[in-house]
Design goal:
The chain is an alpha/beta fold. The chain has three domains: 3-58, no CATH class; 65-193, NAD(P)-binding Rossmann-like Domain (Rossmann fold), CATH 3.40.50; 198-353 and 355-393 and 423-447, Dihydrodipicolinate Reductase, domain 2, CATH 3.30.360. The chain has helices at residues 3-11, 22-39, 42-45, 53-62, 75-90, 107-117, 126-131, 147-156, 171-184, 198-208, 240-243, 247-262, 398-415, 423-442; strands spanning 65-71, 96-103, 121-123, 137-140, 160-164, 188-191, 215-223, 266-274, 279-283, 296-302, 308-315, 320-326, 335-342, 345-350, 356-361, 372-375, 446-447. The strands form three sheets. Strands 16-15-14-13-7-12-11-8-17 form a nine-stranded mixed sheet. A six-stranded parallel sheet has the order 3-2-1-4-5-6, with helices on both faces. Strands 9-10 form a two-stranded antiparallel sheet. It is globular, with a radius of gyration of 23 Å. The chain binds alpha-L-sorbopyranose. Alpha-L-sorbopyranose binds at residues 75, 224, 250-251, 292, 334.
Length: 448
């Protein structure tokens, strides 16, 4: 065992943060155990289980370890790191995961992130990461303007790619990314994590089984309030050149994705986009952090994206769509509400109560009809994903959606099979986004 691994062993805090390299670990397990026994006092000995040695042994027997390089380390970087750390501890993955390299521009920031989030090494050069022959998977969590360049380079280097949403700034970029990934025959996935909320995945199952009959309506609202203050600075998420669009690509993209997942493909849209605050203080220090906060200076700059984006539309299967995304709904922090109405019943979902799905079944006897409340925590395959976690009623949260995403992605990489949502989905999503923009601009209906 080298010094690095010993340091990681000592840094293991019981939260799965230990960074033992799985591919080498099998032959070193005994070394590691005796190292821990000899070097660490009684208190820590009792925590030796945090190494989860038996669990990792399963992967070693499978013989595969996938080494991950992650670009970007702020909000999504943190959420994805947690997922990479946890996935193998809860799901029977077909390969081990090594959190190899985390990458970001600020040397100090990325070193701190590596230590805090559990990465083996830190880098400030994403090109080195995507070219590193030891890396199998590139996970992209950077601001939107760099997704395409990084993903295309990663594909050319034969890396499997997980990329944050929106996939890119434009349809053209998405097409290039998809083409590069297809050409390289790598597994590609865009991180629309809300698909893997157990209640949403269960809704999908119910719809496929025909519980709602023919779908008439898809209504979705994604509401936040973090930029209502006119003094909130001009962060990168409010600059078209970096983010592509505002509320639209950031959160409308999520409910568009859920519409495509649950109901089908959009055929035409009619949109309305609006910017309430046209100028904002330019950020002190010009920051490009998570784009969710910062300090404004005295100089003002133009907001070049939408604050709210709404549209109605039609799906190819005849269902009607009604979507609204806003960052101007005071009191709404990360509020996603969905209702789907069909010929046999309806489903209703509220992210703030994300372990529940409400189902109205029109076939219930008339005297006891009403929305029933399904607590989506039943194990044994009854409800998706939850069996890997806790006993019934022990509820899940936001971070679990990323763990599910990573778990499915890793297994797809091992199987060499596509995993939804792919870059193709990212591209189709972008087509809807652009159609809504074109419609808002022209004040006309636009075909997708
Ligand atoms: C900010 O609006 C944000 O972090 C989005 O970028 C995420 O995709 C969303 O899930 C939560 O809000």
């Amino acid at each position: 065992m080298d010094l690095h691994e010993r340091r990681n062993a000592l840094h293991c805090d019981g939260s799965g943060r230990c960074r033992l390299r799985l591919g080498e670990a099998r032959s070193r397990e005994r070394d590691l155990e005796s190292f821990i026994d000899s070097k660490i006092g009684g208190h820590y000995k009792s925590r030796r289980s945090c190494f989860n040695l038996n669990f990792t042994k399963h992967f070693h027997d499978m013989g595969t370890t996938l080494r991950v390089g992650m670009i970007g380390y702020r909000f999504m970087g943190k959420a994805h790191s947690n997922a990479w750390r946890q996935a193998s501890h809860f799901f029977p993955l077909k390969a081990g995961i090594e959190m190899s390299t985390i990458c970001g521009r600020d040397p100090q920031g990325v070193e701190t992130a590596a230590a805090q989030l559990g990465w083996k090494s830190a880098s400030t050069d994403w090109r080195k990461v995507v070219e590193d022959p030891n890396i199998d998977i590139v996970d992209i969590n950077t601001p939107n303007d760099s997704h395409a360049e990084i993903a295309i380079a990663a594909a050319r280097n034969g890396k499997h790619i997980l990329c944050e949403k929106p996939l890119a700034l434009t349809v053209a970029q998405c097409e290039q990314m998809l083409a590069a990934a297809k050409k390289a025959k790598v597994v590609h996935m865009v991180c629309h994590n809300y698909r893997r909320i157990p209640a949403i995945a269960h809704a999908k199952r119910m719809i496929e089984e025909g519980a709602l009959g023919a779908i008439y309506h898809y209504y979705a609202r994604y509401a936040q309030d973090w930029i209502v203050d006119p003094n909130f600075p001009l962060v990168w998420r409010l600059q078209k050149g970096v983010s592509g669009s505002g509320t639209h690509g950031d959160i409308n993209a999520h409910i568009i994705d859920l519409g495509r997942y649950l109901v089908g493909e959009f055929s035409e849209v009619c949109g309305l986009m609006h910017t309430f605050i046209k100028e904002r203080p330019i950020e002190d220090g010009g920051g490009k952090g998570d784009g969710l906060g910062g300090k404004g200076g005295r100089k003002m700059g133009k907001v070049t994206v939408d604050d709210a984006a709404m549209f109605i539309g039609r799906f190819k299967n005849g269902a009607l769509a009604n979507l609204e995304a806003t960052r101007f709904a005071l009191g709404r922090k990360n509020h996603i509400t969905i209702e789907i109405n069909g010929s046999k019943g309806s489903l209703s979902f509220d992210f703030e109560d994300m372990n529940r799905l409400k189902f109205f079944n029109n076939e219930d006897p008339g005297d006891r009809q009403g929305f029933r409340d399904i607590l989506v925590t039943q194990p044994g395959g009854a409800h998706p994903y939850v069996g890997a976690w806790w006993p019934p009623g022990h509820i899940l949260g936001y971070e679990h959606t990323f763990v599910h995403t990573v778990a499915d992605f890793v297994n797809a990489v091992v199987d060499g099979k596509p995993v939804q949502p792919t870059f193709e989905d990212g591209l189709r999503n972008e087509r809807v986004l652009e159609a809504v923009e074109a419609s808002a601009k022209s004040r006309q209906w636009v075909k997708v």
